[in-house]
């Protein structure tokens, strides 16, 4: 298993999930995951989710169900957990570990098209902080996306 130091800096505006997964599945991120368990007894390994009929393009988040026996490990499972059941994502150790790696390496563009969606006033599957929305819409975002750049999140 590689370390983050072995991988070096990721390419700018990474647009493939395999690169994001490579950076979020390192020895350091696993140690970080375990460390979050020590921070609070409320941070556990949550169950992953399944979309109706196995259709991962389904964006009717409330219709997604728990996938009994499968833990929400990894980038994709953590993203889906955050979108469909944010209250569970707040208790999932991998969500915190992956978020930490994504913040440390903004060129991974882990957050996908949320900044673009906010800038275009599109509907979002969550309610971002009003201050963040205002900053993004005014062009003062610190996100890795430029004002006119677009990035479609790969599911």
Folded structure, characterized:
This protein has helices spanning 4-7, 17-24, 27-39, 75-84, 86-89, 93-104, 114-119, 130-137, and strands spanning 47-50, 65-71. The protein has a domain at 17-105. Strands 1-2 form a two-stranded antiparallel ribbon. The radius of gyration is 16 Å and the shape is globular. The protein is mainly α and 155 residues long. Mean pLDDT is 76; it is low at 141-155. It contains eight helices and two strands.
Short précis:
GO terms for molecular function: metallopeptidase activity. With 155 residues, the protein is mostly helical.
Feature tags:
disordered C terminus, 8 helices, mainly alpha, two-stranded antiparallel sheet, 2 strands, 7% strand, 155 residues
